[in-house]
From TrEMBL:
It comes from Anaerocolumna xylanovorans DSM 12503. One of its GO terms (biological process) is cellular response to oxidative stress. Coiled coil: none annotated. SUPFAM superfamilies: Thioredoxin-like. Keywords: Oxidoreductase, Peroxidase. This is Glutathione peroxidase. Belongs to the glutathione peroxidase family. CDD domains: GSH_Peroxidase. It comes from the Bacteria. Residues 1-158 form the Thioredoxin domain. It holds the Pfam family GSHPx. The keyword Cell inner membrane does not apply. GO terms for molecular function: peroxidase activity.
Length: 160
């Protein structure tokens, strides 16, 4: 099973396949609205605006597993992201990224790219970078600002 074999429910309530992102460079990130790293939404949106025409996609997955920092409903979370950070990249419904109810996509991502805690997600805003073939190219800790991913993104987009 690869990245494109998974699907998830977007904020619109409909199941969407990761195949929608075939041939794109994708950042997959677990998000939270009330976290010290929440301002990364702004940085992620800036990357998206800069590189979307070249094939960058960002998919956000709200998660309430870390200090209950995303307790709202999917609608509340979606509104928060749009109103406060102007998020236009794809946001999916809230999921679990650790534990017995881990979303299958996150089981796959964590298996493909281990972090400092082994396969577990350490905190909100752990980021996975997927190449155009659907391979996990890199995993970034929550403390890594999205701007620090830019060189690798450009490389995967085929820029010199």
């Amino acid at each position: 099973m690869g990245f494109y074999n998974y699907s998830a429910v977007k904020m619109d309530g409909k199941e969407h396949s990761m195949e929608e992102y075939k041939g794109k460079v994708v950042i997959v990130v677990n998000t939270a609205s009330k976290c010290g790293f929440t301002p990364q939404f702004k940085d992620l949106e800036e990357l998206y605006e800069t590189y979307k025409e070249e094939g960058l996609e960002i998919v956000g997955f709200p998660c309430n597993q870390f200090a209950s920092q995303d307790p709202g409903s999917n609608d509340e979370i979606h509104s928060f992201c749009q109103l406060n950070y102007g998020v236009t990249f794809d946001m999916y419904g809230k999921i679990d990224v650790n534990g017995s109810n881990t979303h299958p996509l996150y089981k796959y991502l964590k298996n493909e790219a281990k972090g400092t805690l082994g396969s577990n997600i350490k905190w909100n805003f752990t980021k996975f970078l997927i190449d155009r073939e659907g391979n996990v190219a890199e995993r970034y800790a929550p403390t890594v600002n999205p701007a620090k991913m830019e060189e690798k993104i450009k490389e995967l987009l085929g820029r010199k």
